[in-house]
Amino acid sequence: MMDTNLKGKTAAITGGARGIGFAVARSLAAEGADIALLDLLDTVEEAAQRIEDEFGVHAFGQRLDVTDQDATNTAFEAIAERLSVPQVLLTAAGIEINGDSIDVTAAQWRKVIDVNLTGTFFSAQAFGRGLLASDLPGSAVLISSMSGEIVNVPQWAASYNSSKAAVAHLSTSLAVEWASSDIRVNSIAPGYVLTDLTQQIIDREPELEADWISRIPQGRMATPQDLTGLVVFLASNASSYLTGQQIIIDGGYTSI
Ligand code: NAD
User: Fold this and answer.
1) What is the model's pLDDT at position 106?
2) Is 160 one of the annotated active-site residues of the chain?
3) What is the pLDDT of residues 23-58, one digit of tens each?
4) Which of the chain's termini has less CB crowding within 10 Å, N or C?
5) Taking Cα atoms as reference points, which of 223, 125, 220 lies closest to residue 174?
6) Number of structural domains, the chain?
7) SS3 for 188?
8) pTM of the prediction?
9) Is 33 contained in some domain?
10) For position 162, what pLDDT does the model report?
11) What is the predicted pLDDT for the residue at 2?
12) pLDDT of residue 1
């Protein structure tokens, strides 16, 4: 039988107020995990309340900018005090700025790298610190993207693609570094998922949606729920010997 039970464990989810992070948080709560949502949005507390009401687990939400290392460390300490030391991490905080590379400003480039790569590192670092200090096992799932493997067309996003390729190798690097402490680290690389992030791109260029779908063998974009089973698997003991891997979940996009 597959052991996906997360009762007695706390899961921290960055970017958890909406989209993929929120959908995964609900699925982790359905497996019994207590939930801490961390997000820039001030709806994060309300999102946590919805999870607490729906699943009867303990949940709380806190505003956090993951690019702030001190604030990220403090937030993880607060989770340990209010719930318990997080043994599951999902890093879903991320942004995308599209545009021709020739026009990208220093500020735009740095912002994408800062949130997607540096913020993911700070989150994983705070997570690992809590586990190492208390000698607990844990599992981190970092969200990269198929954009770290291939170059999406027809829109251009060199900063996003580069940041996601780096997240994948960050994940592998931490996995090897922490393996002997029983901390597993894997990344998932989604294809196109319909969330606010992609909806905003489609709103600006509506013709992109049909173009993207025409390139996906399964013939549709993912919903956030399409990703939840994989993350629950990676977060739980069902995947106890799996670390340092990136799993692409893209409806077949990168297979052709
Ligand atoms: P989303 O915009 O719905 O959610 C991202 C969340 O991250 C938001 O709630 C946002 O407030 C939060 N966030 C942004 N910057 C932050 C910061 N500095 N500190 C804390 N929180 C911050 O987008 P989503 O589609 O759910 O994306 C989640 C993750 O999945 C992102 O890393 C994204 O790059 C990745 N991803 C998305 C897709 C897709 O097609 N939607 C595909 C591959 C990978």
Assistant:
1) 98
2) yes
3) 999 999 999 999 999 999 999 999 999 999 999 999
4) N
5) 125
6) 1
7) strand
8) 0.98
9) yes
10) 98
11) 87
12) 81
Element (H, E) at 62: strand 59-63
Ligand 1 atom 2 nearest Cα: 197
Contacts of 4 (CB under 8 A, 6+ apart): 31, 232, 233, 236, 237, 238
Structural domain includes residue 78: yes
Ligand 1 center from residue 183 Cα (angstroms):
24
Tell the burial category of 200 from Cβ atoms under 10 Å away from its Cβ (0-12, 13-18, 19+).
exposed
Strands 10-14 and 34-39: parallel
Q: Could you tell me if the CB of 190 is within 6 A of ligand 1?
A: yes
Does the C-beta of 61 come closer than 6 Å to ligand 1?
no
Two structure tokens written together for 110: 């740095």
Q: Is the CB of 253 under 6 A from ligand 1?
A: no
Domain span including residue 140: 10-192+226-250
Q: Are 143 and 187 in contact (CB under 8 A)?
A: yes
- List Cα–Cα distances, 193 to 2, 23, 65, 198, in angstroms: 27, 12, 23, 7
Q: Rounded to an integer, what distance in angstroms lies between the CA atom of residue 80 and that of residue 241?
A: 26
Q: What's the CATH number where 146 sits?
A: 3.40.50.720
| Domain annotation covers residue 202 | no
CB 90 within 8 A of CB 11: yes
- The answer to the question of residue 231 being in a domain is yes
Edge-first strand listing for the sheet containing 246-249: 59-63, 34-39, 10-14, 86-91, 138-143, 183-190, 246-249
Q: How far apart are CA 79 and CA 35, in angstroms?
A: 9
